[in-house]
Input
Amino acid sequence: MSILDTIRARYTTKHYDSTKAISAEDLRTLREVLRLCPSSVNLQPWHFFEASTREARERLLPAIMDFNRDRVLDASVVFVFAAHKAVTEEYLDKVIGQEVADGRFTREDAAANVDAGRRQFAYMHENQLKDSRVWMAHQTYIAMGFLLLAAAQMGIDATPIEGLYQDKMDEILGLKDTNLATVFSVSLGYRSAGDGNATRPKSRMPLSEVLTVL
Output
């Protein structure tokens, strides 16, 4: 299936078949997709929480708005996306350390230059623009897009969920005294036979409304 065919075929699943589970191999692939997602200046300011058992998904329910609860409980896997709340020296050190360990630089000064550039950009958001929390939360939406596309390519259905109580989810996940905060969740699994949204025509604005060639 071409990439356009995949995008045209995918949709937001409203009802899941709770008897169908994502295979262990496919789950490993989805985890790796999340790990490999791009982010601004490679900051990767996120953490993903996986609920792949019914018991784990039930734990999340108090933080899920009523109309989304079945989409969490009946799915095979739910990922909760959390973003960093503040830029920290410790984490910036960890990122450059990982890049060096992964062999991204052939010269020591190149690593230092990349590190300095990332710090300048991150601290601009933290100290000057004072929007670092919003900026880092935005990065998680890049990861969500990659996950949704990968899942569709694999024949796995998905539902991005912003209809949740972030503070309550933070409490459930033990994030209150950490540098992480919930942004949204994504349910994944296989649609039920009666999911009416699966057969509705896709509706998007025409290209002329959303794109201007300069």
Observations:
- The chain has a mean pLDDT of 98.
- The two ends are 31 Å apart (CA to CA).
- Residues 3-210 form a domain with the NADH Oxidase fold (CATH 3.40.109.10).
- The chain has one domain: 3-210.
